[in-house]
Amino acid sequence: MSEQYIVFAIPVLDYPVQGYQPGDMRVKLQEEVNELIEEVESKDYDQRRTLSELFDVLQVTVGLIRQQARENLPPGESTAVLQNVIARANQDHLYKITEYGRQRGWETARR
Known about the structure:
- The protein is mainly α.
- It has helices at 25-41, 47-70, 75-104.
- The protein has one domain (24-104).
């Protein structure tokens, strides 16, 4: 059985974004999450707009993790921390979904 994955590319940017102070990144993340929720709940649901909002949530999340790491570490090390956090969260997600799939009889998509 060949597993299928979809890979996303999220740029690593230094924050804060214009108009936001460093402590406001969680506020910005909440704003992006709310926009995603609004898009999902929209009566005119659009797949691309929903994915665009999801990418915005991921972008701000990446920025927030890196920003928190930069409070105590040099830029290169903070990027390594970011990569480590993402890798661990991704492994946790893959394990969880694999386990759910086993329990619920899900099948991996085939080409």
